[in-house]
Amino acid sequence: MGNSFLISPSLFCSFLLLSSVSVDGVNSSSPFADLYHSSRALLEEVGQLVGRHRDRFTLETMRAQNKGYAAEIAVITYNRLNKLMNGDSKFRILLSFGQHGRELITSELALHLLSVLSGELGMPDLNTVSMDNVLDNVVIKIVPMENQNGRKRVEDGDACERRNGRGVDLNRNWSVDWGKKEKDYDPYEENPGIAPFSEPEAQIMRNITKLFDPHIWVTVHSGMEALFMPYDHRNGTPDGYTSKTMKSVLADLNHKHFRDRCVVGSGGGTVGYFAHGTTTDYMYDVAKVPVAFTFEIYGNSSAPATDCFRMFNPADSATFKKVISEWCTAFLTLFETAPSHLKADLGKWVSIRGNVVDGGESRAGRRKVLDGIELGMQELKTYFRLFILSSVLLMFMFCSRISRSKLIHTGSSNLS
Ligand SMILES: *[C@@H]1O[C@H](CO)[C@@H](O)[C@H](O)[C@H]1NC(C)=O
Ligand SMILES: *[C@@H]1O[C@H](CO)[C@@H](O)[C@H](O)[C@H]1NC(C)=O
Ligand SMILES: *[C@@H]1O[C@H](CO)[C@@H](O)[C@H](O)[C@H]1NC(C)=O
Ligand SMILES: [Zn+2]
Questions:
Q1: Which of 11, 74, 82, 396, CA to CA, is 20 to 30 A from 379?
Q2: Are 346 and 333 members of one domain?
Q3: Is residue 87 within 8 Å of residue 364, measured between CB atoms?
Q4: What is the C-alpha end-to-end distance of the chain, expressed in Å?
Q5: Which Gene3D superfamilies does the entry link to (predicted)?
Q6: Which of the residues are catalytic?
């Protein structure tokens, strides 16, 4: 008895000591403490979740490499009732998390969102029946961790790393206005790479976009609280027909979920610097995704600049849970409001795949068939030209023989 009384306080102290060590560890070697998954654990959990809900999820792993640098990206597709409904007639939503290594909280949000979509986690304040209707009408592709290699560097102790596994900023490696450097350009932070799409991660993301042809794109970051639309590379929003829709969707989200505290507008116009070669500008300008957003879900501006873990990620459980739950609900609202806002616009939309959402099924179908036979058509055209040419030659030879024989027979010269 007496012994245990003596031991308990020291156990208590060593517990304190341990916990203070782990809090220190958050700054340097192990930023995860109890709140965060390691990248491996997170992706494993995502895989298991998909395995438990094959009726609505599929998982693909895309790989690419260049010059000895390899990357892979896991993509989860959420498509409920996929046997009953053609995916092409649903709204397609592409979400990417974890493009920057140090923004750990974003991948945690992805995992949480997937758990909610699986039905394993409920959401408070949610009308389940109407949400079910919303979710029946969307196909959502989720990239929970776009930058796995950069993320590993963070886990190995470089808490400030935002670039990929060979030091290229994946949000500066896209082709819109690529490579332009501002006066405050910092190669440690923003290295765009040697050329647009030099990075396997950017190539994979571009491929996913081409194949999926989304109506809505969101890349999720942290560092501040913001709801951005294009453009990042200049001060101003686009004039396109969906510009108003994007503005009103963002204003709604900000009001409904964030008490208007997020910065809203063009990234370049509000964030205080221009960013060149960003994914969202590419999605909007080149991939013609009608609604393209960058969400910044958390930032702590009072954390010292050396403490990247705290600048970009909640460090206590209450803040962590609040951020995850607020943004998860905001995404569910987005899935509901953006398609209905967009419906009116989409008559004017010609996507990279050339289909339109209204009556999209038949047009998309036809378009795909067209794509498929386009190459064949090219060849046919070439053969047809050769055929015409040789026919003309034959005719010419034939006619000239007739005329010569006529000449010989009639002796007439009026044909010359
Ligand atoms: C992307 O990075 C690659 C590899 O460094 C580089 O060659 C390419 O120029 C970069 N492209 C952009 C748009 O940053
Ligand atoms: C992208 O798609 C093309 C054509 O489908 C394929 O050849 C290429 O390997 C893909 N690249 C990546 C990085 O997935
Ligand atoms: C923000 O950072 C400061 C300084 O590290 C810290 O005292 C504060 O608790 C942090 N805020 C949150 C919400 O984590
Ligand atoms: Zn970021």
A1: 396
A2: yes
A3: no
A4: 131
A5: Zn peptidases
A6: 296
